[in-house]
Amino acid sequence: MRVSKTDGSQTLDPQRDALLAAGIEPDRLYEDRASGRSDQRPGLAACLKALRAGDTLVVWKLDRLGRNLHHLVNTVHDLTPRGVGLKVLTGQGAAIDTTTAAGKLVFGIFAALAEFERELISERTVAGLASARARGRRGGRPYKMTPAKLRLAAASMGKPETRVAELCRELGITRQTLYRHVSPGGELRPDGIRLLAEGKTSPRGSAAVAPSG
């Protein structure tokens, strides 16, 4: 279970009631009071650690588990070799139940969409960097992470073929800068989340008007 705010304005009761109705024992419930984007999810971490082969991780809604689609897919991929299933009770993704053949098929579609999105981001960013190099630019100030670089880094990290040194050289950043924003598995760290949030809220650049006369 998870709610985003810690000020008491949100309650876990609907999630708790749904999980109990689904047959979850009260002592097997775990909770977090944190943003879904946060890396600090002690309840989720404890839950994942407690799972054993034959268990099923049950969530009220899909967005209660993952920060994003990639995080969700990676979580399930980590659970599958352990013999642990995933079931979503309601909302988008309610058809996901990896303990059934139909549910596995639905999750496979989700995983394919996540990989497709990752590849599109990677291709667009590589094309943008190549265009910048052709114009004599390196895609931003040296060693500075930008939203475009961050998207490419997140799409590339965690892939077996990715060489961190080559990726840093391509992006024009240091290894320290890379790992401050992205984890080895491609998940955004707090600095990366803030960078993307700032990019979405910053005003668009406007054209300068030359003085007349």
Summarize the structure in words:
The protein is mainly α. It has two domains: 10-35 and 43-111, 3-Layer(aba) Sandwich (Rossmann fold), CATH 3.40.50; 138-201, no CATH class. Helices cover 47% and strands 6% of the residues. The chain has helices at residues 13-21, 42-50, 69-79, 101-134, 147-156, 164-171, 175-181, 190-201; strands at 2-3, 32-33, 56-59, 85-88. The strands form two sheets. It has a two-stranded parallel sheet with strand order 1-2. Strands 3-4 form a two-stranded parallel ribbon. β3, α3 (69-79) and β4 (85-88) form a beta-alpha-beta unit. α4 (101-134) packs across α5. The protein is globular. Residues 202-213 have low confidence and may be disordered.
Architecture blueprint of SSEs:
Layout: E1 2-3, H1 13-21, E2 32-33, H2 42-50, E3 56-59, H3 69-79, E4 85-88, H4 101-134, H5 147-156, H6 164-171, H7 175-181, H8 190-201
Parallel strand pairs: 1-2, 3-4
Helix pairs in contact: 4-5
What's the helix-strand series? EHEHEHEHHHHH
Major beta sheet summary: 2 strands, parallel
Percent helix, as a range, is 40-55%
Looking across the biggest beta sheet, what order are the strands in?
1-2
Compute the number of structural domains: 2
Which word captures the global form? globular
* CATH arch. level architecture of the largest domain: 3-Layer(aba) Sandwich
What is the rounded distance between the termini? 66 Å
Rounded mean pLDDT is 78
**Count of helices?**
8
The overall strand count is: 4
Q: Classify the fold: give the CATH topology of the largest domain.
A: Rossmann fold
Q: Could you tell me the strand content as a percent range?
A: 5-15%
Q: What is the CA-based Rg, rounded?
A: 21 Å
